[in-house]
Amino acid sequence: MKGLIGKKVGMTQVFNDEGNLVPVTVIDVGTCQVVGKRTPEKDKYSAVTLGFGEIREKILNKAELGFFKKANAPFRRHLKEFRVSAEEAASFNVGDAVKADMFAKGELVDVTGITKGRGFSGVMRRWSFKGSQTKTHGTHEYQRHPGAIGQRKTPGRTYPNKKMPGHYGVEQVTTQNLTVVGVDVEKGLILVKGAVPGHNNAVVYVRPSIKVAMRAQHKAARG
What we know:
By secondary structure, the chain is α+β, with helices and mostly antiparallel strands. The chain folds into 2 domains: 4-117 and 171-221, Translation factors (Elongation Factor Tu (Ef-tu), domain 3); 118-168, no CATH class. It is built from 5 helices and 11 strands, in the order E-E-E-H-E-H-E-H-E-E-H-E-E-E-E-H. It has helices spanning 40-43, 62-71, 86-90, 123-126, 210-222, and strands at 4-15, 21-28, 33-38, 47-52, 78-83, 108-114, 120-121, 166-167, 172-184, 189-193, 203-208. It has a 6-stranded antiparallel beta barrel. The model has no long low-confidence stretch (mean pLDDT 92).
């Protein structure tokens, strides 16, 4: 699975080829570089380690500084390893810039990021509960409550993973099958239509759609 590390810049809108106005999320991938490689001979698998975002040497700890110097790679703030085939890994060298043209207009991608933090939230906001519809017969201030949460004497407790109020957000989420509306190689930007998780300036990972790849594999297997 090839991919890129990027920064969610924000939203804008562009006109497509049919003249329709399309809302898009702008992802900046301009500083992606190869900082390491994994080989089957040494590591038992093949992968490429990408770095994103510039960082000063004095901010790095000794372990990070040793990693970059041993690989003779540029310093980068964020690192992510992407599994690729041995042939694809051989085509990359440490220090190579990975540009936005890895993806093409019209391609489907999966975007992974950390969702916005929403603090302590109730069940209607956190889990989309309908809420109590009883507003008469002595019921007061109960419209947004979760309802009963336990059982009877046996087992006499609330089961784990019950949907209840709690901390909402700050979770890793992958949104699948987003459409690439445009690619600007010079500026290092990818324009994606769909819900990209995270706040503005959040780090996201862009990969080719796993469902498209699985469909192709199934079609090939069927002959």
